[in-house]
Design brief:
The chain is α/β, with parallel strands linked by helices and about 350 residues long. It is built from 14 helices and 13 strands. It folds into 2 domains: about 100 residues, 2-Layer Sandwich (Beta-Lactamase); about 230 residues, 3-Layer(aba) Sandwich (Rossmann fold).
Length: about 350
């Protein structure tokens, strides 16, 4: 291991942290690049990286076992900590025959719901003891951070057993009232499916699944929620109705009726979020919140998911909010520009009505 490259990587990460960057990218023929408030910025004073640089950075990052896996599979996901000061969700991969590295910086401190500017209704979600809650939205828009805030609130308020299954582990929870076991795929369990299949035998109250990737994960999550556990997870979908369709459609046609019934009876809510550039700098979440009341459960059961947007629209008093209403609210509070509101809206003509 080249300690010189380890130190150089550490310098880049410290600079990224100091600049408030969310990601650091290293690739052949490019300068080291940071993502700050959603924008990519090259480190102008740094040299363009060579193939040898990248090979050395990969050696500095990976253990011998991880390197074997990387060379066989051509890509690898893993967690990386630098001096216990900076934690990253990391991915090493090949592009055009050369290694490349992408590091997502994860804050050491877990922020609360208010600090993250998330809707206060999430405090009510954290008080529940059973059901299925999802954070959805594009990659890099704070889904894991939202779930970490909810899990940590439970950690500080109840004597529950929390098990997380992650690939890799992102936020590290410090045990308070809860008993917390965090399992990382590749380090603590051979596969995601192995961990999921055995989780119900580990006496959990709360299960957090880093990401629902396939029908088997979704089926186990629904069964766990149905059998008295509280399950949290994330999905890369745009909004609540698309999320429900995605879950149901992942099952074979013969099982979709049962999956619909399970989801209708276990779902407690969905938060869909976008991190929008703030006028003052930084980013702020615009959110859609769906809470599973009897109307929502009936629509899922009856396969009328297309009507969910109307329920969200007319249930503001219950704590639900549409993405457009959230965006319009942020514009009125002068947190974001009108241009960015339209850019992130899924229905700009409806947003136009709100902003009038």
């Amino acid at each position: 291991m080249d300690t010189n490259y380890q130190a150089k990587l550490g310098n880049y990460l410290e600079l990224a942290q100091a600049q408030g960057a969310s990601d650091l990218h290293l690739g052949v023929g490019k300068k080291p690049t940071l993502r700050i408030d959603g924008n990519l910025l090259q480190l102008a004073k740094e040299p363009i990286l060579t193939k040898d640089d990248l090979v050395n950075f990969v050696d500095a990052l990976l253990t011998p076992e991880q390197k074997d896996k990387f060379l066989k599979q051509k890509e690898i996901d893993f967690g990386y900590s630098y001096k216990d000061k900076i934690r990253c969700r990391s991915n090493v991969y090949y592009q055009r025959g050369y290694p490349a590295i992408s590091l997502r910086l994860i804050p050491i401190e877990i922020k609360g719901i208010e600090e993250l500017n998330l809707p206060k209704i999430l405090h009510q979600i954290a008080k529940l003891s059973q059901g299925f809650f999802l954070a959805v939205g594009p990659a890099g828009h704070g889904k894991s951070t939202t779930l970490a805030a909810l899990i940590d609130e439970i950690n500080h308020s109840r004597f529950d057993h929390i098990i997380t299954i992650e690939d890799p582990i992102e936020y590290i929870f410090e045990q308070d009232k809860a008993l917390i076991d965090q399992r990382e795929v590749g380090m603590d369990t051979l596969t995601f499916h192995n961990a999921l299949r055995s989780v119900l035998r580990q006496d959990p109250d709360i299960i957090m699944i880093g990401e629902m990737r396939d029908p088997e994960t979704m089926a186990i999550a629904l069964t766990a929620a149905e059998t008295g556990h509280f399950v949290f997870s994330t999905l890369h979908t745009n909004n609540a109705s698309q999320t429900i369709d995605r879950i149901i459609d992942s099952f074979p046609a013969s099982q979709q009726g049962q999956a619909r019934f399970q989801l209708a009876s276990t779902l407690v809510g969905i938060i869909s979020q976008r991190l929008i550039p703030r006028i003052e700098g930084g980013r702020i979440p615009a959110t859609e919140i769906l809470l599973a009341n009897s109307a929502v459960r009936n629509l899922i059961r009856e396969d009328k998911v297309y009507q969910l947007d109307l329920v969200i629209e007319t249930s503001l008093e219950e704590g639900m909010i549409s993405l457009n209403r959230s965006l319009a609210d942020l514009v009125r509070r002068r947190e974001i520009t009108t241009e960015n509101a339209y850019l992130y809206s899924l229905n700009p003509s409806e947003l136009n009505n709100y902003l009038k």
